[in-house]
Amino acid sequence: MRLFLLRISDIFEQTSKKIRGAADRIQPTKSVTFLDCEKQNWENVRPCFVLSTGRSGTLLLNKLLLLSPYAYAVHQPKPELIRASKRAYEEISISPEIFKELFRSAREEIVFEAAQRNKVYIETNNRITFFAPIIPLVFPNAVFIHLVRNPADFVRSGIRRKWYAGKHYHDIGRIVPLDPIIKQKWDNWGSIEKIGWLWNETNQFIENFKQNLDSKIFLFVKAEQLFTDPDITSKIFDFLQLNNFNRQKIEKLIRKPVNVQRKGSFAKYTNWNYSDKELLRYVVPLAKKYGYSI
């Protein structure tokens, strides 16, 4: 494991040097250099990372943010860290320094590019969620948005995409239980329980991360409100210190659903039978904390 991550980190670092050299040759729009950022330990930037399960409105949020000329919002930056995300969930508490360097090498150039353009870097990629514990070590002034979606809708989406069925290419990066008690149950669980567990475990990971940080650097957002209420986007703009909020453009964008799933078939939660609803309630205790009645 350690050698695997070190090799990845070395590859990112080699790429980093090439991109860094190219970036420094570009005429910047803001008088800042990569060396400036490193000397200041990246305290001169205030990037935002959206922590979520995925399938929770991250693409819509990205499009809403891009309505501001001051936002450098990315939804699927390269590398996405799909496989590494799962490793982070499993071992970041054991080898934080390795994951810190891996994340730094994967993201410092793009954060620098945003700084050069005098924009706020915002990443809505859910794969960075399990890197959260080391992000403040890389970017000390980073802020975070915790984006949550109704677990029933999340589970339905995951079932329609055949998660945990060995048929979705992102399954290589999908987490599985570490708790020995849950591991014993895992093979006997169906899709509702597995995907529900994923929702709860990911959000619990985020909750654990939030506990020891200043609440001022976190914003909690429910996807359902993001989908319908322009005031939520206004609140996000304020949190990120973005100007040029345009209500008319926001309203126009949220009227047209983004990233709507058209493949796969599974009943809406209201049409589930009682036993299936009970299966979900059992594995998503955080639903009550977030105000979801399921």
Quick tags:
294 residues, alpha/beta, Rossmann fold, 14 helices, 51% helix, globular
Topology:
Layout (H helix, E strand, L loop, with lengths): L1 H24 L8 H6 L8 E4 L6 H8 L5 E4 L7 H10 L4 H21 L3 E4 L11 H4 L4 E6 L2 H10 L19 H7 L4 H20 L7 E5 H6 L1 H10 L7 H9 L18 H10 L2 H4 L5
Parallel strand pairs: 1-3, 1-4, 2-3, 4-5
Helix pairs in contact: 1-5, 7-9, 9-13, 11-12
How would you describe the overall organization of this protein?
With 294 residues, the protein is of the alpha/beta class. The protein has a single domain (2-289), classed as Rossmann fold (3-Layer(aba) Sandwich). 51% of the residues lie in helices and 8% in strands. It contains 14 helices and five strands. A five-stranded parallel sheet has the order 2-3-1-4-5, with helices on both faces. Helix 1 (2-25) runs parallel beside helix 5 (96-116). The longest helix is centred in the N-terminal third of the chain and has 24 residues, at 2-25. The radius of gyration is 20 Å and the shape is globular. The N and C termini lie far apart (39 Å).
Précis, in short:
51% of the residues lie in helices and 8% in strands. The chain has 294 residues and is α/β, with parallel strands linked by helices. It has one domain (2-289): 3-Layer(aba) Sandwich (Rossmann fold).
